[in-house]
């Protein structure tokens, strides 16, 4: 599949220093977080990690796509909840890779309809499009 070029409507710029035990900050100063290696090998807490930041971005983006799917199907999904787990580990080729599990809950909407909306969101979400075919991503209605 050929890479599609975009006409940017927004560009986020974040700078990282110190890798997994460093700091990330956005050029506008809104994002500013210390980082620690996941699992806290040294027992330290109080900092985020790249996997949490990726999960946060994916969850928010996916819910935006879910809102779009809800509008298209004329279903109110404003009370929905999207949980995203991002796991890091060794792939079959022994290199580090990611896996994503997305769980979607929509109160008062049956599981089958929720799955239909979640699948539609997965087709349009920019994070889902970016990861499709690159890492394992599962989408489940709960």
Automatic annotation (TrEMBL):
<dbReference type="InterPro" id="IPR003718">
    <property type="entry name" value="OsmC/Ohr_fam"/>
</dbReference>
<dbReference type="GO" id="GO:0006979">
    <property type="term" value="P:response to oxidative stress"/>
</dbReference>
<comment type="similarity">
    <text>Belongs to the OsmC/Ohr family.</text>
</comment>
<dbReference type="InterPro" id="IPR019953">
    <property type="entry name" value="OHR"/>
</dbReference>
<dbReference type="InterPro" id="IPR036102">
    <property type="entry name" value="OsmC/Ohrsf"/>
</dbReference>
<feature type="region of interest" description="Disordered">
    <location>
        <begin position="23"/>
        <end position="49"/>
    </location>
</feature>
<protein>
    <submittedName>
        <fullName>Organic hydroperoxide resistance protein</fullName>
    </submittedName>
</protein>
<dbReference type="InterPro" id="IPR015946">
    <property type="entry name" value="KH_dom-like_a/b"/>
</dbReference>
<dbReference type="Pfam" id="PF02566">
    <property type="entry name" value="OsmC"/>
</dbReference>
